[in-house]
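Homework help thread (please don't just give me the answer)

Our assignment gives two proteins as sequence + structure token strings and asks us to describe the second one. The first is just a warm-up. Here they are:
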Amino acid sequence: MTERSIAYGTFVIERTLPVPPARVFAAWADVKQKAKWFGAPGGDNTPKQFDFRVGGREYNEGEAGGTTFTFDVLYQDIVENERIIYTYDMTMNGARISVSLASVELRAEGSGTRLLVTEHGAYLDGLDNNEQRKEGTISLIGQLEKYLKTA
């Protein structure tokens, strides 16, 4: 029998992006744009489901190093060009590894945007942890930064 456990964690990632909040918001809200930066580099990151509205769902699955991950989102609050709040769970090879609450805040800063991503996670059964999730999110935000500079 598997020993059950929950580990909790919170992290905040802050970046200043050289584009206005509307441009950053569109990169999250438009499925074609999001597929270009959110997910495994070089893979097909088009979500299987993408309904970007309060109460809408996003679902994606992908493989990394022979491991299959799923990302199942429920959008809780959206204020255009200002914030996105969502809850999500992730699985790894069919086992639920976490349940999280994430918020994306966009604040105008000069001609750019101050981006704040805050996540509160419950990491299950030793299959994930706060540091790994933070590292993964930092990588995703790095991909967003590159996308915004080239798009």
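The one we have to describe:
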Amino acid sequence: MFSVRYWVQYIPGNPLVYLQVISDGIKNIKKAYDENDITITFPIRTIDFGIKGGESLADMLKQAKK
């Protein structure tokens, strides 16, 4: 994990400069990750609708309609 800090010169009347800098930073980090085959992991949740497990949701819905 790492942190990114931005030092942006304040320009009165133009708060969008800060948002543009943040956006450019995120895009550059993503580009660097892609160029170096780095992926960002995220939690995966699996929901099982069958009592015994392994049944597809489509099959469960068909049985419920009968």
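TA reply:
I won't write it for you, but here's a hint about the kind of observation we're looking for: The chain has a mean pLDDT of 82.
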